[in-house]
Design brief:
The protein is mainly beta and 179 residues long. The chain folds into 2 domains: 1-29; 32-159, PCu(A)C copper chaperone (Immunoglobulin-like), CATH 2.60.40. The chain has one helix spanning 2-26, and strands at residues 34-35, 39-42, 45-53, 61-69, 75-81, 85-96, 99-105, 108-110, 114-118, 123-130, 139-146, 150-159. The longest helix has 25 residues, at 2-26. The structure holds copper (II) ion. This is Copper chaperone PCu(A)C.
């Protein structure tokens, strides 16, 4: 009797697996935006290695990512915005006569069949007018708008800024004694 039950259960599990696989394979992932822990796919673009580097108090923060374009045409990141910041610019760090300088760029281009890497010392998103200081271990949501691929909300994990401790200390009443 119990052998019969387990046989039924096995068949049931097998059918469930087949249905599950069918659903996975049948869904057209090329058009659906989906995300897992490491990547976001939107149109012909794949975004990976994304993170936001925290900063000191209210100083601007920087965000980085890798954008891969598997399409036949060039795409461009036109704008970025976040409910957590007043403004997000595109910057490029360049070393000029031994000094690292940042300059603003209008768009971030991703050529066909290639990838654009935003990384420390190069291209980055400069996040200004932070409404909340980014706390390491948290999430920072940024909406990216691409010329062709469209719009995508990315949850950037927040990392610490090279050893700078960012502690969430509650406001003390002594803060109000000075005016
Ligand atoms: Cu910058």
């Amino acid at each position: 009797m119990s052998a019969r039950v387990s046989k039924y259960r096995r068949i049931h599990n097998l059918i469930s697996l087949v249905i599950f696989l069918f659903v996975i394979l049948a869904s057209d992932t090329s058009k659906i935006l989906y995300a897992n822990e490491n990547t976001y796919n939107i149109g012909k673009l794949r975004i990976s290695s994304f993170y936001l580097r925290g900063t000191i108090q209210s100083r601007p923060a920087a965000a980085y990512m890798t954008i891969q374009n598997s399409g036949q045409i060039s795409d461009s990141l036109l704008s970025a915005s976040s409910p957590m910041a007043g403004m997000i610019d595109f910057h490029e760090t360049r070393v000029e006569s031994g000094v690292a300088k940042m300059r603003q760029v209008r768009h971030i281009r991703v050529k066909p069949k290639s990838m654009t890497v935003l990384k420390p010392g190069g291209l980055h998103l400069m996040i200004k007018e932070l409404k909340i200081p980014p706390i390491a271990g948290g999430i920072f949501v940024i909406t990216l708008k691409f010329e062709h691929a469209g719009t995508v909300d990315i949850k950037f994990p927040i990392k610490t800024f090279s050893g700078t401790k960012m502690e969430h200390t509650p406001k003390k009443s002594t803060d109000h004694t000075k005016h």
